Amino acid sequence: MTRIAHVVLWLGVLVVAAAVAWWWLTFRDVISYDYISTREAAVCLLGRSDTCDLARSLCRGAHPLALLSYWWGSFWIGLLVVSASLAVGGPQGSRLTGLSPSHSKEKVG
Prior knowledge:
Elements: H1 3-32, H2 38-46, H3 50-60, H4 73-89, H5 94-97
């Protein structure tokens, strides 16, 4: 994997981790007060629904950190960046098989 691929990979992992932390800061109070279940809140990590909108509006009123409410697209952007790093990095076969990609094809004699 190239250096640029490693940098893009870690950038993507950082964005995903930040999205999960942002989601948790936004939804932890509504989960702890049993307004919605953890399963329902987990759906809000990945997308938007009426339940998520309602939970965010309940949270927004008295949130101690005055956060912007979570946007589900941030999680998908992070996954897109991680995927892009894997695409840029190219084949990785040598770590599993001990062979480089050029040696993994059989020679036809």
